[in-house]
Amino acid sequence: LHNLYGNADIITLKSRRLWWVGHVAQMGDARRAYRILIGKPEWTHPSGRLKIRWEDSMVRDLKKID
């Protein structure tokens, strides 16, 4: 990661991720990335620890930035 991002701070990385989510949200239903971001899985998860969704990460990042 250091080779990819150098000494980038966490706020910069989170803002880039938020920009990407906004970009994908504007794509529309025909694009695969949009369907993956918005879609809900139709299968059930095995019992145990819940998986962290992209939506959960975005909400947590927005709370940290604000």
Question: TL;DR?
Answer:
The chain is an all-alpha fold. The chain has helices at residues 2-5, 10-25, 32-38, 54-65.
Walkthrough of the structure:
This protein is mainly α and about 70 residues long. About 60% of the residues lie in helices and about 0% in strands. The chain has helices at about 1-5, 10-25, 30-40, 55-65. The model has no long low-confidence stretch (mean pLDDT about 75).
Strand and helix map with partners:
Elements: H1 2-5, H2 10-25, H3 32-38, H4 54-65
Q: What is the number of helices?
A: 4
What structural class is derived from the secondary structure elements? mainly alpha
Query: Judging from the principal axes of the Cα atoms, what is the shape?
Result: extended
Q: Rounded to an integer, what's the Rg over CA atoms?
A: 15 Å
Poorly predicted segments: none
Alpha-carbon distance between the two ends: 26 Å
Binned strand content? under 5%
Quote the average pLDDT: 77
The string of secondary-structure elements, in order, is HHHH
Q: Helicity level, as a percent range?
A: 55-70%
